[in-house]
């Protein structure tokens, strides 16, 4: 499959990606458990139907040492027994933050309170930012028709 538009070959995209990546780097200083961002990135990408990002974040997570069984269960995390309370709160917030238009109130109060109990202010700010950034990247890749399956770990390093 060929992309419908080679977004990443444009000068405008180079600028956008530079700034979005800068925001992503700030999230690294939030103090989140290093396993949580991989779960968040994968779940949002699954929800948004972004094959490119789903492929990339699965491969990156496995490369970082994440268990493929856990990654396979991310789409069914509510029924899975392999996630911690913090991971479950992060996945719930990811789902609600990604599907924000599906609820009249945006993020449900119970989901928000569960996240508040699990994360410090800096961690919560990092988590919210990570959800926003991956949703931006998902939309870029879905709109441009970026194909999935060819990502190699570290190709954007």
TrEMBL record:
Gene3D superfamilies: AhpD-like. One of its GO terms (molecular function) is peroxiredoxin activity. Residues 25-96 form the Carboxymuconolactone decarboxylase-like domain. PANTHER family: 4-CARBOXYMUCONOLACTONE DECARBOXYLASE FAMILY PROTEIN (AFU_ORTHOLOGUE AFUA_6G11590) (PTHR34846), BLL7811 PROTEIN (PTHR34846:SF7). This is Carboxymuconolactone decarboxylase family protein. It comes from Glycomyces albidus. The lineage of its organism: Bacteria, Bacillati, Actinomycetota, Actinomycetes, Glycomycetales.
């Amino acid at each position: 499959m060929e992309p419908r538009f080679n977004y990443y070959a444009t000068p405008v995209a180079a600028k956008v990606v530079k700034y979005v990546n800068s925001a992503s780097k700030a999230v690294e200083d939030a103090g989140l458990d290093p396993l949580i961002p991989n779960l968040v990135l994968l779940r949002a990408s699954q929800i948004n139907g972004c094959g490119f990002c789903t492929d990339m974040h699965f491969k990156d997570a496995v490369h970082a040492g994440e268990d493929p069984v856990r990654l396979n269960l991310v789409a069914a995390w509510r029924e899975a027994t392999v996630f911690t309370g913090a991971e479950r709160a992060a996945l719930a917030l990811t789902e609600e933050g990604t599907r924000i238009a599906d609820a009249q109130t945006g993020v449900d109060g119970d989901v928000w309170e569960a996240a508040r109990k699990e994360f410090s202010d800096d961690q919560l700010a990092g988590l919210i930012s990570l959800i926003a950034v991956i949703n931006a990247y998902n939309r870029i890749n879905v709109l441009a028709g970026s194909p999935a399956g060819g990502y190699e770990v570290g190709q954007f390093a």
